[in-house]
């Protein structure tokens, strides 16, 4: 039981950096009204643990193997709408914030936040509030919207690992020529000389 006999807030922690996740779990364990019910190191593992333990709040790392925190947030919004999600990140770029909020995240904060502040934000998000780190919010406002269409962003993401056009076309179920056209358009919008530079620039802005 938490303070005053109330049930503690059930928390899921997902971060692929074991040291950080373990430290968060240990520090949150000191809060009498918070209970870490599950931990995960990858996106798919976070979803599986959430389904099994049905936490009140999921604290998700932005970048995890398998699927990122935004994808997990989107899935939880559909599967467990009563679970509120927060994203913590060491790479708080403006586009990431916009994607996270669009997916349904109720919190977005840097990993530099103190344990005490993290606990406060978990309580606030659980109560129905939204929290966005002020500096990240200011950056997002000044950065502008992504110039990429959803399809261009999807194909740049597929090109990120250096896959050849034919492989990207197969994964996207498109003709190779169509893929080239989309990637060329994306590179032009980002003032990049090739798709590899385009991927890098899009990621720098958080548009992927």
Q: Overall pLDDT, averaged?
A: 89
Determine the strand fraction and express it as a percent band: 5-15%
Supply the CATH superfamily name of the largest domain: Response regulator
Low-confidence parts, pLDDT < 50 over ≥5 residues? Answer: none
- The number of distinct helices, counting runs of at least 4 residues, comes to 10
Number of domains: 2
Question: How helical, in percent, are the residues?
Answer: 40-55%
CATH architecture label name of the largest domain: 3-Layer(aba) Sandwich
Order of helices and strands: EHEHEHEHEHEHHHHH
Our measurement of the CA-to-CA distance between the termini, rounded to an integer number of angstroms, reads: 41 Å
User: Roughly how many Å is the radius of gyration?
Assistant: 19 Å
CATH topology value of the largest domain: Rossmann fold
Query: Would you count the extended β strands for me?
Result: 6
Shape descriptor reads elongated
